[in-house]
Write a structure and sequence with these properties.
The chain has ten helices and nine strands. It is an alpha/beta fold. Helix 4 crosses helix 6 (234-245) and helix 6 (234-245) crosses helix 10 (298-315).
Length: 316
């Protein structure tokens, strides 16, 4: 069975291609990774690209590519820019996949389709009403809706996966920044942030779910939320990082009210809300439908991530 992957040079895509037989792999992207025995097709994900040659004889498309959050984005029409790739580009790829005879289209969406936060103990579910709060989430939400409509009209089997925060060896952005802070062994001001819960997912667990969905008969036309199935507070997350790094861990008891005051004064209330708030997902539907459970524990995922981080620091 031939499998096509987009976004192979990204964090998730790079890990995913390691789990698929290279003889059956087709990569669609901007940069050739020069992997032996792998067919590469240079293209961009938009509403103008032609994917027919790349999709010839392909049975499954795993669509990881996306326009993600861009710091200091100077776009005059950011929603249109997100839609061009995440919505219109996705639908262009999916429609051509139908015409090429592709059987299954696995779309890596985002938990941001559900929203930005949850009340403690009230996690997002797979069948909740969409409630995106930013342009990225909106573009992913629109893509999901149009993909499922396409599935109804054509018979294409669509699988939608909404990850939470993904971490693992080589992770960047906020997780990497926090890991770097913890690695210094200095006291951190998260001692009072114990009453929130966040769902995380290791890249190994996410890849395992994607691979499960390639051929599982019950995955067709389903929406799956995914996590490590072990939610942690900000305080607990820092403790786990310190343990994985082999560092002593001391967290200063800075009251949450102080954070909220600083956020209000600095105009960064959204950042503070993410730090103090909860974002939990219920993966019961995923586990029950597929007979799946995360193969990697959160502790092992943190240790694997920390080991890679420490090795990378030694090379610098």
């Amino acid at each position: 069975m031939k499998i096509a992957i987009t976004g192979s040079s990204g964090f998730l895509g790079n890990h995913l291609i390691k789990s698929i037989s290279k003889e059956n792999l087709v990569i669609l992207g901007r940069n050739d990774l020069n992997i032996p025995n792998v067919s590469f097709h240079k293209c961009s994900i938009d509403n103008r690209s032609n994917f027919y040659e790349a999709l010839d004889s392909v049975s499954v498309v795993i669509h990881c590519a996306a326009r993600v959050h861009i710091m200091n984005d100077n776009s005059t029409n950011p929603l249109d820019d997100y839609r061009e790739v995440n919505t219109e580009g996705t639908l262009n790829l999916a429609k051509q996949a139908v015409e090429a005879g592709v059987k299954r289209f696995i779309f890596i969406s985002s938990i941001k389709v559900n929203g930005e936060s949850t009340q403690l103990g009230t996690p997002f579910r797979f069948d909740d009403q969409h409630s995106p709060e930013d342009f990225y989430g909106q573009s992913k939400s629109e893509a999901e809706e149009q993909l499922l409509q396409l599935a109804e009209k054509t018979g294409l089997q669509v699988v939608i996966i909404r990850p939470t925060l993904v971490y693992g060896p080589g992770v960047k952005a906020n997780f990497a920044l926090l890991l770097n802070l913890v690695s210094k062994g200095l006291p951190l001001p998260f001692g009072c942030i114990k009453d929130n819960k966040r769902s995380l997912v290791s890249v190994d667990n996410l890849v395992d779910l994607i691979v499960t969905c390639i051929a599982h008969p019950k995955a067709a036309n389903q929406v799956f939320l995914v996590s490590d199935d072990n939610d942690v507070s900000t305080n607990e997350m820092v403790q786990q990082m310190a343990k994985a790094l082999g560092k002593s861990q001391w967290q200063l008891p800075i009251p949450n009210a102080f954070y909220r005051l600083v956020g209000k004064v600095a105009g960064k209330e959204d950042v503070i809300n993410r730090l103090l708030g909860s974002l939990q997902v219920d993966i019961t539907h995923t586990k029950d439908t597929l007979g799946w459970k995360p193969p990697q524990t959160l502790e092992d995922g943190f240790k694997q991530t920390a080991d890679f981080f420490l090795k990378s620091k030694l090379k610098d």
